[in-house]
C-alpha cells in the first residue's frame, strides 16, 4: 500500500512529542481512537503512521507522517484535507512539505504545459524569462480593460492576466470583459506579430466555473487563472484537464500554516498549475528572499515526470529590478509587473522598456 | 454605492498605522497606486477606504475598511478574495469581522433552512438540541459504513454525516457509499419511525461536485456536507440553491488569521451553511470557550433576514458532556459525537444513551 510523506513542524515539549505525533497521525487519517477499529486492514494500511521525529529548534519538532495515498483518492482537494484539514485548526501544527511516490504524482496530474509549454504558447524560442502584466484597476469597463490589454500586447508583454480582483462584477462582467480583452489582444498580435496570451481570472462554484470556462474557450483565450485557495485545488485539478495552461494565484493562501514552498511550489504544481504567482521579496509582502528562492526551486525541481512550473514573483516589480530578479531567479521565471507600468505617463513606452530589459536579461545569460 | 465593513487587526507602530491602513484599503480593492487611476468613479466608489483606526493592545490596531460591495459581485469566493485574498499573505494582518448591508446579505443568500428548517427536516417538534454522529473510519467498505449508519439511525441520532475524510476513495466510492448508507438509514427510519437525515461529504472540482450532487439527490439524501475552505465558498453558495440543507465542515479553515466567529459563524452562514461545525473547547483542539461561544453567537445572531445557522461543536464529545454543552450553548445547538460511540462496546446502547440525554437536556430548559 502506498504512502505519501507529510512533514510537519509541531510546537511541543519533548516529553509530549511522541504522543502528539501519534495523535496527529490519527487525526490526519481515521480521526477516531484506533482501539475502536476492528478492521485489521484499516489499522495497517489506512491509519497514519509516524515515520520520524526530530528536534527542530526550541520546543519544536519536525515530524514526518506516512499517510495512506488511498485516503486522497488522487483528488487534489481531498489531498489538502488529508494533509492539513483538521490540523489546520491546531495552531501548534504547521505543514512543511509533502513527498509522494512517482505513480501518485502522475495520478494527480501536474502541469500539462510547464515552462517549456508556456514558452511555446507565447512563441518564445529562446530560454529568456517571460513577461506578464495585469489588467487593472477593477471597476474599469470592459472597453477600458481591453484598451489596456491592447497596449500591453502591442508592447510585447508575453502574458496579460486579469487583476485577481476581476471576477464577474457589474462593472466588467466576465463574459463581456473576456471577449473584449481577447479581441484587443488578437488585434494587437495581428498588428505586431506578437503572441501575447490572455489569462482571465476564473472563480466561483461549479456552475459559474463551467460557464466561465465555456466563455473563455469560445473567446479563444490562451490561458486561465485561478486562485486555488479561493476556488479549491479540486477546481484547479479539473481545469488542468481542459487543454489550457493554468496560472495559479496565491490569494487566501497565506492564512493557513502551510510553508509557501510546499503550498505554492509543490501542491499548486501537483494539482496542475503551469505557472505559480507568489509575493516577491522586497515588495509589499513579507516573504524573505530565502522563501522566494525555495518556492521557485520547489516549482522547478525535478519531480517524477511532472514538468516544471514557472515561478512568477509578483509585487513591487519595476523595469529597474529586471536584472536583479533574473540574477536571483534565473531565466526560468515570469516577471509580473503591475502598478509600475500604470503609473508611468507613457504606458506603452514603459511596457516596451520592460519587455526589452526582459529580453536582454535572457540573452545576457 | 454600497460598502461592506471589514475589520482587521494589524500589528504596526503608531507612527505607521495610518499609512498601513491606507495601503490595506488599496490592496483589498484596486491593488495599484491610486495616483495612476484617472477614473473618478473608481476612485470614489471602488477604492477601499479607511473608516476607522483604533488602538487594540500593544503595537496593534483595529482598522475598519469600507470595501465596495460591487467588487464582490455577491459571489462568496470573490468576497473571501476581497476581504482577505492578498492580505492573507501579510502576516501582520488578521481579519476580525465583516458587516454587510441587508440587501447584500440577501444577495449572498444565507441559510435556506436554518435552525428551524433543520428541526423540521429531522421531525423535531420541540426546541431540543439535535444529535449528530459520523461514519468512521475511512477505509471501511460501503457495507460497513451503512451498517453503522443503520445502528445510529435506529438509536435515534438526528443527523448522520460522513466523516469529513470520506470522499471518493477506492474503499468506499462515493456512489456506492451514499446509496448504501441512505438505504440503511431509510430502513432504520421505517423500522423505528425515526427521521434520521444523512449528510454525505461532497468535494472536488466542478465536474465531480455536480456528479456527486446528482448521485446524492437520486439516493434521496436529506442534507449535504462540504468543507468550504477545501472546496471554495463559491461551491457552498451554489449548493445552497439546490434545495438541500447544508452542513459546513471547517477543514483547512486554519483560523489563526481569520477570526473563527467571522469565518465559521458569519461567512459560512452567509454563503448558505445551515449548520456549522467547529472545534469544541475541551477536546483535541485549542479554541477557548470564549471563541466557541462567539462562533455560536455569530451563527445564531439576528442578521438581516438571514435565518440562524445551527452551531455544531465537535471533538471530544461524550454522553457525559451533554448537559455541560447545553448549559454552555443553549438548546439551539447540534451535538456531534464520534469516537466515544465507536469506542463503546455496545454502540447502539451508547448511542441511545446519548440520544436520551440530548432529549432530556432539551426538556430540562
Automatic annotation (TrEMBL), chains A, B:
InterPro entries: RuBisCO (IPR033966), RuBisCO_lsu_C (IPR000685), RuBisCO_lsu_C_sf (IPR036376), RuBisCO_lsu_N_sf (IPR036422). Residues 118-342 form the Ribulose bisphosphate carboxylase large subunit C-terminal domain. Gene3D superfamilies: Ribulose bisphosphate carboxylase, large subunit, C-terminal domain, RuBisCO large subunit, N-terminal domain. It comes from the Bacteria. SUPFAM superfamilies: RuBisCo, C-terminal domain, RuBisCO, large subunit, small (N-terminal) domain. This is Ribulose 1,5-bisphosphate carboxylase. It comes from Thauera sedimentorum.
Amino acid at each position: 500500500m502506498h504512502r505519501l510523506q507529510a512533514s510537519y513542524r509541531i510546537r511541543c515539549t519533548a516529553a509530549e512529542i511522541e504522543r502528539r505525533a501519534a495523535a496527529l497521525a490519527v487525526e490526519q487519517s481515521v480521526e477516531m481512537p484506533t482501539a475502536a477499529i476492528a478492521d485489521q486492514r484499516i489499522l495497517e494500511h489506512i491509519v497514519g503512521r509516524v515515520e520520524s521525529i526530530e528536534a527542530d529548534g526550541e520546543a519544536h519538532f519536525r515530524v514526518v507522517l506516512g499517510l495512506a495515498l488511498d485516503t486522497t483518492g488522487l483528488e487534489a482537494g481531498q489531498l489538502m484535507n488529508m494533509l492539513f484539514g483538521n490540523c489546520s485548526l491546531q495552531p501548534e501544527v504547521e505543514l512543511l512539505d509533502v513527498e509522494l511516490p512517482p505513480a501518485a504524482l502522475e495520478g494527480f496530474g501536474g502541469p500539462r504545459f510547464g515552462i517549456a509549454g508556456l514558452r511555446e504558447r507565447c512563441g518564445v524560442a529562446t530560454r529568456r524569462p517571460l513577461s506578464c502584466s495585469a489588467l487593472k484597476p477593477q471597476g474599469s469597463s470592459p472597453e477600458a480593460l481591453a484598451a489596456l490589454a491592447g497596449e500591453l500586447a502591442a508592447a510585447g508583454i508575453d502574458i496579460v492576466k486579469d487583476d485577481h480582483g476581476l471576477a464577474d462584477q457589474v462593472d466588467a462582467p466576465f463574459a463581456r470583459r473576456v471577449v473584449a480583452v481577447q479581441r484587443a489582444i488578437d488585434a494587437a498580435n495581428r498588428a505586431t506579430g506578437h503572441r501575447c496570451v490572455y489569462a482571465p481570472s476564473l472563480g466561483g462554484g461549479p456552475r459559474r466555473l463551467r460557464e466561465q470556462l465555456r466563455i473563455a474557450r469560445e473567446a479563444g483565450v490562451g490561458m486561465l487563472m485561478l486562485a486555488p485557495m479561493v476556488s479549491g485545488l479540486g477546481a484547479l485539478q479539473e481545469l488542468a484537464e481542459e487543454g489550457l495552461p493554468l496560472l495559479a494565484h496565491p490569494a487566501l493562501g497565506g492564512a493557513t500554516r502551510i510553508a509557501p514552498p510546499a503550498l505554492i511550489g509543490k501542491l499548486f504544481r501537483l494539482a496542475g498549475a503551469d505557472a505559480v504567482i507568489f509575493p516577491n521579496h522586497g515588495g509589499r509582502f513579507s516573504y524573505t528572499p530565502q522563501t522566494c528562492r525555495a518556492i521557485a526551486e520547489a516549482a522547478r525541481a525535478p519531480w517524477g515526470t511532472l514538468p516544471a512550473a514557472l515561478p512568477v514573483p509578483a509585487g513591487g516589480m519595476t523595469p529597474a529590478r529586471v536584472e536583479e530578479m533574473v540574477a536571483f531567479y534565473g531565466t526560468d521565471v515570469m516577471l509580473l509587473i503591475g502598478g509600475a507600468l500604470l503609473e508611468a505617463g507613457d504606458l506603452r513606452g514603459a511596457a516596451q522598456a520592460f519587455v526589452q530589459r526582459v529580453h536582454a536579461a535572457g540573452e545576457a545569460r
